[in-house]
Amino acid sequence: MTHPSPTAAGTFRRLHEKGLLILPNAWDAGSARLVESLGAKAVATSSAAVAWSHGYADGHFLPVPILAAAVAEIVRRVDVPVSVDIEGGYSEEPAGAAATVSTVIDAGGVGINLEDGAGSPDLLCAKIEQVRAAASRLGADLFVNARTDVYLKNLVPPERRLDETLARAKRYREAGADGIFVPAVISAAAIHAIASAVELPLNVLARPDLPAASELEALGVRRLSAGSGLASAAFGRIASLAAEFLRTGASDPLAEGAMPYADINQLMAPSGRG
Questions:
Q1: Are 74 and 36 in contact (CB under 8 A)?
Q2: What is the pLDDT of residues 201-259, one digit of tens each?
Q3: Domain of 98: which CATH number?
Q4: Mean pLDDT, residues 135-139
Q5: Residue 123, C-beta contacts closer than 8 angstroms, at least 6 positions apart
């Protein structure tokens, strides 16, 4: 059992106070160590990527013990704070979400993403309240990033998305959220309106046509997540290479753009920690 350090939790919270925190989401200890070595100030998991890496589909199929083991391995290997995407808490019940969060805290996570999905905002509010109580019982300074899928899942007609997002964000803040995550919003005007109104750090998701990072910061965004983007890119590259190798047996394409074996091995060696 590895409880998160107060230092890591405080560091993670401070990273949301100014500037733009860029999070290249990881899925295992190796990918986390890699992004840390490239300068990531914190590591966040992608629920989809963690599920895929263990042979599960995204969408509440990953068993919580497997998630907890993956988090513990990441925490073991990196020195930066680790935040964990727990989807909807892997439970329809607030108490079940709180139990999941207790497991994540025990594994060393200092933050979570908790989403409403297609469910009721009332349910997410109840989950946030119970998650907050569970963290308090464990003495953990947990950063609760409340994700609303109004834009991502088109939960309301386009003309109502901004107002619905603001209404949900207000309720999630009052329930105890520390940040608001609005994936799939890409309009600069909408991003600015949300950032100006929610009174909490705003997190957006990397997508085509999203404003540049410098513009996002100027609009008031405090966190930019890759989500499953890195894992999707990696799967795409592996699929292309594997298909070509199966078709032709050619060796040369495998070396194109590859990170050298010695560099990877050194990165993962105990003396390679930064």
A1: no
A2: 999 999 999 999 999 999 999 999 999 999 999 999 999 999 999 999 999 999 999 99
A3: 3.20.20.60
A4: 97
A5: 92, 94, 116
Residues with Cβ < 8 Å from 272, sequence gap 6 or more? 37, 266
Question: pLDDT (tens digit, 9 = 90+) per residue, 1-42?
Answer: 555 677 999 999 999 999 999 999 999 999 999 999 999 999
pLDDT score for 270: 84
Phi, psi of 80 (to 5 degrees): -95, 165
Examine residue 193 and state whether it is found in any structural domain, yes or no: yes
Helix axes 64-77, 94-107, angle to 10 degrees: 30
Is 48 a domain residue? Answer: yes
**Can you tell me the distance from the alpha carbon of 269 to that of 142, in angstroms, rounded to the nearest whole number?**
30
Residue 138 lies in a domain: yes
Kindly report, residue by residue over 160-191, the tens digit of the pLDDT: 999 999 999 999 999 999 999 999 999 999 99
- Say how far apart CA 268 and CA 77 lie, in whole Å: 8
Least Cα distance to 30 among 227, 231, 228, 225 occurs for 231
Contact 128, 180 (CB under 8 A): no
The amino acid at residue 122 is D
Q: Smallest Cα–Cα separation from 225: which of 20, 13, 19, 17?
A: 20
Structure-token pair, residue 149: 């899928």
Q: Residue 16: inside a domain, yes or no? A: yes
Specify the DSSP class assigned to residue 10: H
Could you list the residue range(s) of the whole structural domain that residue 193 is in? Answer: 6-227
